[in-house]
Amino acid sequence: MRFDKVHNTYRVNLLTKGTEPLEGEHHGRLAIEQTYGYMCFDKVCYGIMATFNAFVLMKRQNGGILYMSRTIPINSTTPTILKLLYYFSYLCALHPDPYPELNSEGIPIYLKSAPKTPDKAPKIPDPNYRPPARTTTLSPSNTEGRRRSARLLGTSPTTESLHLDVANLVSLGCKGWRGTLTNGPVFVKLWDAWKFSASDVEHEACVYQRLSELWTTIVPRFIGFGQWGFCHILLLSYLDVIPSSLLL
Amino acid sequence: MLHQIKYTSKVGRNVMQAFSEIHARGVCHGDVRCENILVKQDGSVVLVDFEVSTIDADESQLEAEMREVKDFLASLKR
After folding, report:
1. Rounded Cα distance, A185 and A171, in Å
2. Which of A86, A201, B9, B45 has its CA 20 to 30 A from that of B19?
3. Closest CA to A200 of A209, A188, A187, A191
């Protein structure tokens, strides 16, 4: 593999410029800000942000500009992650000198470390502290059997918000979780949004709608579906059942 | 022992009935296996996980699935 070949193939679409609103709920923004902070502190031009199954390549430019690549899944083949990292390390090698962030007058900005005095140190967590319950908003079921996107459900005048206490989810294996809505326990099915599209969830929601006459008798009652962070969620009524495999 | 046989037979009937009901509404489950067929304490059956299911399935799909259900029930009796 040669640098120039990799460079010529991917230089066009590797780095793209974008903006992200500073307000509103965006679960990736804090991670980006944190990584950008490290890049400024370390005076480096390039950075990498990685999740369990994806990479984002980042480039800093003075004036507070951050360029980010698209999210690249680890199983990417065009190009492969190995090729991307190879090319990225080549870019890093082109900029070995410190690259401090400058203010509007061209003067380097220095980040100040927190004082190392005991009163400024993080406090030992209170073992009795109960974190406030985090909630997520989902679209409730509707009585029509048509297939709809989550966006359409969310804007429907008949929808209302459901608040799921995601802090107390208990894994039941595979995609299944036991959660709590305001009116009691629910079965929560979570899909990793990196691997599954929203249409998978919509399809299953649509099937449950079709089977609405059988809710609570032959299929669980469908409550709603939606999005939480990087997960798609489907909510069903919680039933006290066992898998039929236990009968074998 | 007799009680267990009766219970298993009841579950088997309920499994057949459950699949008949969803087939009557044009839904082919598509993933017949133990983990997706849940049993309540009273022997009634709940079907879950319709990820790969088909809506408005044709007759051949439904018949093929019914054969799968029968194979599944045969495994229960063994």
Report:
1. 13
2. A201
3. A191
B9-68 residues touching A, CB cutoff 8 A = 11, 15, 17-18, 21-22, 25-27, 34-35, 37-41, 44-48, 50-51, 53, 55
Residue B72 CA to residue B65 CA, distance in Å, equals: 10
CATH of the domain at A211: 3.30.200.20
Question: pTM of the full predicted structure?
Answer: 0.54
Q: State whether A23 and A103 are in the same domain.
A: yes
Closest by Cα among A172, A174, A168, A141 to A156: A141
Task: State how far Cα A55 lies from the chain centre.
Answer: 12
What strands lie across the sheet with B37-39, from one edge to the other?
A: A242-243, B37-39, B45-47
In a domain, A18, yes or no: yes
Identify the domain containing residue A217 by its residue range: 135-247
B51, B68, B69, best to mutate vs chain A, most A CBs in 10 Å? B51
Q: Do B47 and A218 touch (CB under 8 A)?
A: yes
Whether B44 sits inside 8 A of A217 (CB atoms) is yes
* Domains of chain B in sequence order: 2-77 (1.10.510.10)
Between CA B9 and CA B12, with CA B10 as vertex, the angle to 5 degrees is 65
Q: What is the DSSP letter of A88?
A: H
What would the two tokens of residue B15 be? 């499994």
Task: Give a yes or no: residue A49 inside a domain.
Answer: yes
Residue A205 has pLDDT above 70, yes or no: yes
- In sequence order, what are the residues at sequence separation of 6 or more whose Cβ sits closer than 8 angstroms to the Cβ of residue A63? A102
Mean pLDDT of chain B: 87
Residue A107 and residue A147 in one domain: no
Tens-place pLDDT, residues A123-158: 555 666 555 444 455 554 443 333 332 232 432 334
Domain boundary among A112, A143, A161: A112
